[in-house]
């Protein structure tokens, strides 16, 4: 199982089970990210979606509404994840990785296809160009300018490591990108009008209102934060810092 297929596999399966095409919302993408970060294997997420959808259709009446958000499946996915973890107690790490469809040692350079590494390098190079364009267009100073400089320097270091072959662990790169993205968001939010961020916060809370009681606080916060992060990236024309966006 290719690490980078996680998002699209979950999305496509949900849309297929729903029975009618639906553009998955940024909130749903945030939930998928939360599942992935929590360590939910792909097949467990798929199984949880199936259980939730089967239960829904068994109760559905003609003319009733359809499921419009992946959040509906969250409880089933997490229940399946808990069963999955309990069933794996005592197994070796190698066996667990095999069950999840992961290579035995993802830190090994041979475990990554060279084309994936090159694609990631091109992606980083594109982000760096966008950061350079941002710096040229925006009159940044102080905290924001220092933050942008740190982001650019770290991205260039990551790109150099990829191209030199000293870094081929793309999962580690994804984690590093998340850290760097946090610096970027903090810097750009410092030059974003307070009324704009307040409007984004209001919009996020409105979209998540139905699921606030359903989702655990940590998942709710992650989805909310991802929503704001996406808004910041779009405002400043910087692609999101995630290899899932390749």
Quick overview of this protein structure:
The protein is 67% helix and 0% strand. It is mainly alpha-helical and 246 residues long.
Written account of the structure:
- The protein has 246 residues and is mostly helical.
- It has two domains: 3-104; 111-245.
- It has helices spanning 6-18, 26-37, 42-59, 74-87, 93-99, 114-137, 142-164, 170-189, 194-208, 217-235.
- Helix 1 (6-18) packs parallel to helix 3 (42-59).
- The protein is globular.
- Residues 99-112 have low confidence and may be disordered.
- Helical amount among residues, as a percent range? 55-70%
- Say how many strands there are: 0
Gyration radius (Cα, Å) is 20 Å
Tally of domains: 2
Structural class: mainly alpha
The overall average pLDDT, rounded, is 83
Keywords:
246 residues; 0% strand; mainly alpha; 2 domains; 10 helices
Strand and helix map with partners:
Elements: H1 6-18, H2 26-37, H3 42-59, H4 74-87, H5 93-99, H6 114-137, H7 142-164, H8 170-189, H9 194-208, H10 217-235
Helix pairs in contact: 1-2, 1-3, 2-10, 3-4, 6-7, 7-8, 9-10
